[in-house]
Amino acid sequence: GIEKEEIKQCTLEQIIKKTTAYFEIDMEEIKSRKRTKRISDAKKLVVLLAKELTEESNKSICKAIGVSESGVSKIISRQNIDIELQDAKKRIKMSICQA
């Protein structure tokens, strides 16, 4: 497996880049207030991956992707993502950790 310290080298910026590439949206879209399913899913995964792979605060995550702090907290507390998103999360996580 990958050492936890190795994973912690990931940055919020890397997570956003890999996630936007995976969902084929641009950096501006993830920071926007748009709520299409694709953008919402991308934002969810950025939050979950950022909490898992970085030491970023909820405040810095919410600023980076245009979500309120309560929105970030809801995503973290619920963590209810469907099978498709779980697969996407795994793929993005692997691509980040191999970078």
Protein topology:
Blueprint: H1 4-7, H2 12-23, H3 27-31, H4 37-53, H5 58-65, H6 69-78, H7 83-97
Describe this protein's structure.
By secondary structure, the chain is mostly helical. The protein contains seven helices and no strands. It has helices at residues 4-7, 12-23, 27-31, 37-53, 58-65, 69-78, 83-97. Helix 4 (37-53) runs antiparallel to helix 5 (58-65).
Give average pLDDT, whole number: 88
- What percent strand? under 5%
Structural category is mainly alpha
Order of helices and strands: HHHHHHH
Please give the share of residues in helix: over 70%
Cα-atom radius of gyration: 12 Å
Which of globular, elongated, flat, extended, rod-shaped describes the shape?
globular
> What's the helix count?
7
Low-confidence stretches: 1-8
Number of strands: 0
Largest sheet: none
> How far is the first residue's CA from the last residue's CA?
15 Å
